[in-house]
Amino acid sequence: FDKVTLPFIRALGPRLRVVIIPDEYQVNPQLLPALLGSAEAAAAYDVDQPSRRLREFLDGEGIPYLDLLEPLREAEAQARTYIPNNTHWNARGNQVAAEELARWLGGEGPR
Question: Which of 2, 6, 75, 91 has the most beta carbons within 10 angstroms of its beta carbon?
Fold first, then answer.
């Protein structure tokens, strides 16, 4: 976050809530080798880094967040959650996100 964004974030204070939305390659383990060209390159790549860096920043700033990485991974293990090679959720992905968001905003907190 840069010098322009951080004051805006702080000005919102306790009203700010963030949902971390992972990319399809973070959720679908079969996608990364194709994107990087080999299983070896995929194995060396830290797919959790983008979400982890956001969580670390948000934790440091005391900003509440919902990270959808694990719920979407769990759902993806059963059936696709993204439109193939599109980065947008399909109906199943939208359902998972909606359920997690409703749980979080309803006071149950993230899983």
Answer: 75
* pTM: predicted TM-score of the whole model, two decimal places: 0.84
pLDDT tens, position by position, 61-104: 888 999 999 999 999 999 999 998 788 999 999 999 999 999 99
- The answer to whether the CB of 89 falls within 8 A of the CB of 97 is yes
For 92, the token pair is: 């199943």
Contact 69, 62 (CB under 8 A): no
Can you name the residues that pair with 17 across neighbouring β-strands?
A: none
Strand partners, 82: 89
Structure tokens at 100: 């997690």
